[in-house]
């Protein structure tokens, strides 16, 4: 990626390269790692969900690594990850700049104003997601057609939607499958983590034991 940026016909300034580096570090690493951390924590709290995940994985690829072609045959793993994104929405705050004067919900927003909104608050609003504190992957059946109000906004929406969304889902499914194939049991060792807001909503402390005991 950086080689492409450095050798591009239109040369990037030092500031532009710095911005791209920060974007790659924050978007490609921290959000994915944070989502997987919360997912593993929830599996330690819901052994029935962990067992269902393992059963699905075993049925699809017993004794071999997961392949790209297997992903569509693992709908429940996608549901589990979607629910982790909904409940903990790693991108908890998003900013935009109004490109023109506009009225939103009875509020006048002048051109050039900074707008801050929170996917985390939306995805934990009981008006859109009943019992939002409950980790329930069955909110996301494969045939579900969400409306605007009960959609995930963790990746944004519209023309500025995260360009790496599909890559992120694929990456998380592969990593989650690899963890479950490698270790037979997940067990929480530390106290239950508390959400901590920084760049993402991450666990303040999380220690998980991987093994048979």
TrEMBL record:
Q: Does the keyword Metal-binding apply?
A: yes
Where would one find coiled-coil regions in this protein? none
Q: Which residues bind heme?
A: 162
- From the Swiss-Prot or TrEMBL record, what is one GO molecular function term? iron ion binding
- Keywords carried by this UniProt record: Heme, Iron, Metal-binding, Monooxygenase, Oxidoreductase
Q: Which family does it belong to?
A: Belongs to the cytochrome P450 family.
- Name of the protein: Cytochrome P450
Q: Whose protein is this, by species?
A: Streptomyces sp. R39
Q: Taxonomic lineage per UniProt?
A: Bacteria, Bacillati, Actinomycetota, Actinomycetes, Kitasatosporales
């Amino acid at each position: 990626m950086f080689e492409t940026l450095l050798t591009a016909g239109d040369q990037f300034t030092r500031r532009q390269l710095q911005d791209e580096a920060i974007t790659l570090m924050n978007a490609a690493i921290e959000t994915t790692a944070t989502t997987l951390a919360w997912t593993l924590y929830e599996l330690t709290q819901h052994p029935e969900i962990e067992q269902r995940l393992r059963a699905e994985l075993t049925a699809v690829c017993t004794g071999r690594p997961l392949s790209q072609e297997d992903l569509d045959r693992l709908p429940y793993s996608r549901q589990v990850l979607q629910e982790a994104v909904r409940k903990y929405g790693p991108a908890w705050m998003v900013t935009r700049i109004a490109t023109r004067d506009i009225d939103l919900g009875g509020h006048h927003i002048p051109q050039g104003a900074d707008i801050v909104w929170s996917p985390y608050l939306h995805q934990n609003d009981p008006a859109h997601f009943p019992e939002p504190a409950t980790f329930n992957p069955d909110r996301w059946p494969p045939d579900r057609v969400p409306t605007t109000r009960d959609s995930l906004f963790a990746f944004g929406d519209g023309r500025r939607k995260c360009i790496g969304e599909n890559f992120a889902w694929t990456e998380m499914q592969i990593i989650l499958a690899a963890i479950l194939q490698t270790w037979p049991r997940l067990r929480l060792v530390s106290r239950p983590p508390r959400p901590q807001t920084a760049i993402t909503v991450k666990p303040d402390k999380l220690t998980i034991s991987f093994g048979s005991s």
